Here is the input.
Amino acid sequence: MHKRGSALLRRQAGVQPQPSALRHHRARKVRHLLLRPLRRYHSLTYTNAGHLAPILLRGSNITTLDSTGTVVGAFPVARYGEKTIELQQGDTLVAYTDGIIEPENAYGEMFGEERLQELLLKHAREDSTEIIARTMEAVNQWTGSSELQDDMTMVVARRL
Here is the structure.
């Protein structure tokens, strides 16, 4: 299943690596999050292979989307499931890397998921560009530095 799963992930992402890249790809652990919106039914089908749980904002409520499998490459045989959620008008989905929640302040405290969730609720009505900008600013203020400790990636999508 691992080879088929990796091939599926590469095909979904439109990536066709060279054989040498495949060997390297298999040698390291990789996290994948695949999102497939189904427009007709206003639903989203996802596979989460070891990524941090995406956050669904619905009004003033927060839900985290469950993982459907382990990190790609961690085990020789792994199964990856799919889950489908219904998206309501105004729902906002936020996927992010650990570089958003793990930066530490001068006291060694991480920014954390709770702080991120509070920030997302505070800016939930703003557009995606603004949500991302406010998050990056908050993390930079938390660390006291604009120098990145890790990659900081965030994807924000809203059902209109």
The CA atoms of residues 57 and 143 lie 26 Å apart. Helices lie at 2-13, 19-27, 98-101, 113-122, 128-143. Residues 2-158 form a domain with the Phosphatase 2c; domain 1 fold (CATH 3.60.40.10).
